[in-house]
Amino acid sequence: MAFVLITSSLFIVILSSLGLLLMKILTRKPLKKLNENTYWGPGERPKTLDTTIREFEIEVPKEVLEDLQWRLDRLRPLIPPLEGIQQQYGMNTNLLKVVIDYWKNKYNWTERQNYLNQFPQFKTNIQGLDIHYLHVKPQNPCNKKVLPLLILHGWPGSVREFYSMIPILTTPTEDREFVFEVIAPHIPGYGFSQAAAKPGLNPAEIAVIMKNLMNRLGFKKFYCQGGDFGAIILQSLCILYPENVLGFHTNMASIQTPMAYIKYFLGVLYPNWVTRPEHRMRIYPLSRSFKRRLRETGYLHIQATKPDTIGVALTDSPAGLLAYILEKFTTGTNSAWQAREDGGLLEAWNYTDLLDNVMIYWITGSATTSFRLYAETFNDENLKEGLLRHPLQVPTAIARYTRDFYVADSIIDELFPNNVYLSDIDGGHFAAFQLPEVFANDVFCAVDKFEKININK
């Protein structure tokens, strides 16, 4: 009997402690004002920083390409997949061999470098870091209103995701009153943007950099669009600087509040209270959703805890980097493609498009520095700040893609009380890359609603 009492008491203490810890993490804190001049570059902050805007073109040294070819030519024998297994254990090495062969023998970097240089590119130093960005203006706006749009990628993406969408966003049409001027930066530590030399560059701090970038370009007010980490960074920007944001379109709304979790759990008893009947399978049963999330976030746990360790392997091995990134384009676009020998990759893209994105990571050596954003995001200090548990005051629009992260109707008001446009679209996680026309049209529809609100203010 004593053993039962002691065990029960211990269980209650542990449960209470976990509850208090969870509430501490999830409790909304007052907004913390960030230093807009924090220096993230190497060494001591110089007395003056170069604030000029410099034209930029991708030009990869011959030695880098020769080294890549050397490494691909000397690839060690790959371990064959298990019998009857496609992509369920990660990227199937039979498929990987096909893509590597294409990379070695058919992928033409000279041609692709010209393709990647088709849009005007620039660099400018923000808080000690050279930030790379595309800046594409409409060639012939035809008396249409030109609106600044900041678009931001995530991991394992890059600005390459937007190349097919940018001409749509920047080309006027008769049926629309406006057209966009697009600014598409690489996140610090990704692609051609310089990585932080000091710890602490989390999404909120990057939001400060993005606001400073837009201000330097002359935009005090602007629209923004983000998915994946781009969504998290721009959601942070909307919370910190609502006076600068005219409207926010996201294809990955993040809502992690105590009430949201409570509703999801109570929805086990009555799912229709939480979500539409046709969306029930996207949440329930919770056990299936939890298993799926656990299965597909192994990379997150590694990158959030030991980014530099995994970074060594993927900075040294092009085949390893290729497998690591392409596996996400299979599972992130359609989890059912894990049961296909080809991973479904050619259903949404071609190997050239996918290799463009991989090449950006390879030639810039940005695997490790891109991973570090996870460590800066999912550490105790950043989580306890709870910035993303503050409601957004700006007009918002949420695009829910069928095979991507889902936010239920009943919890949207928790953090998006001014959501004016909600769309449900068939597609996956890399929506701008996969469905550029559909994605661009959704952005136009959202901003049309934002414009009507802003005009009436």
UniProtKB/TrEMBL annotation:
GO cellular component, one term: endoplasmic reticulum membrane
Catalytic activity: cis-stilbene oxide + H2O = (1R,2R)-hydrobenzoin; 1-(4-methoxyphenyl)-N-methyl-N-[(3-methyloxetan-3-yl)methyl]methanamine + H2O = 2-{[(4-methoxybenzyl)(methyl)amino]methyl}-2-methylpropane-1,3-diol
Active site, renumbered: D228 (nucleophile), Y374 (proton donor), H429 (proton acceptor)
UniProt keyword annotation of Hydrolase present: yes
InterPro entries reported for this sequence: AB_hydrolase_fold, Epox_hydrolase-like, Epoxide_hydro_N, Epoxide_hydrolase
Keyword check for Phosphoprotein: no
Assigned keywords, A-Z: Aromatic hydrocarbons catabolism, Endoplasmic reticulum, Hydrolase, Membrane, Transmembrane, Transmembrane helix
Ranges annotated as spanning the membrane: 6-26
Highest rank taxon of the organism: Eukaryota
UniProt family annotation: Belongs to the peptidase S33 family.
PANTHER family in alphabetical order: EPOXIDE HYDROLASE, EPOXIDE HYDROLASE 1-RELATED
Function in brief: Catalyzes juvenile hormone hydrolysis.
Entry protein name: Epoxide hydrolase
Source species of the chain: Hypothenemus hampei
